[in-house]
Amino acid sequence: MNPRKPANAKSRPVKQSPEPQQARRALFPIVGVGASAGGLEAFTQLLKALESGTEMAYVLVQHLDPSHGAH
User: Contact at 8 Å (CB) between 62 and 39?
Assistant: First the structure.
């Protein structure tokens, strides 16, 4: 017999309600950064300056020079 729990107490699973959609989104932010054709160096500096484990997703979008050839 458990002295902390009455003998007739029944154990029930704890019900967890689903998180609202807004709360789930807030747990994993997505950061979008855009740059012009000359922004590659800025992207490189940004990525080097970020600490690991930021728990964020980064979307980097760079405009390419129209004269940039496809390889």
Answer: yes
CA–CA gap between residue 58 and residue 63 (Å, rounded): 16
Per-residue pLDDT of the chain (71 residues), as tens digits, is 555 555 555 666 767 666 666 655 557 889 999 998 888 899 999 999 998 888 889 999 988 877 766 65
Note whether 55 and 31 are within 8 A (CB). no
> Residue 53 region, left (φ>0) first, then alpha (ψ -120 to 50), else beta?
left
35 near 8, Cβ under 8 Å?
Answer: no
Place of tokens 């054709």: 37
| C-alpha closest to that of 30 among 66, 2, 1, 61 | 61
